[in-house]
Amino acid sequence: MKKIxxxxxxxxxxxxxxxxxxxxxxxxxxxxxxxxxxxxQGFKDVLTGAYIRMATPELYGLNTTMKLPEMMAQHWTIPxxxxxxxxxxxxxxxxFTQTSTKKLLEDVWLQYYQTIININSLLENIDAKKDLFTNxxxxxxxxxxxxxxxxxxxxxxxxxxxxxVRLRVPIKLFLT
Length: 176
What we know:
mainly alpha
């Protein structure tokens, strides 16, 4: 009988116990917005993270400086889509319906979008935390974030508008 009471009391205790703290696990490489912007260094880290993201191969490290512009400029003749360079073939023929080209564009969009979100978050929080900054860093970080964010936003929308219509008119038509 004592075992039944013990099991019942344990069951009742577990039923009315909250497990929210057990389920609220924060990944090691991510920081919450409220903890990120508690110091001047946090603002610097967000700005540095944006620059690091822009240097990735998905953006300025490859895709938006060399890969996509060169493919669209049609400097090379790729014999067929069955070649080892099918992605180049599809992009140079403005065929953005293929899986490889869709992934390429999605990677570019995702990286721009995440950069814009992080910069906008910095700009939303910086004015309320103006007292944290020293040696003119408030103006420096805010100005740099503002310019950088608008630059990314402009590129994001220009690329978005170009690929929204999927560049159906090849540039060659304008040169003949």
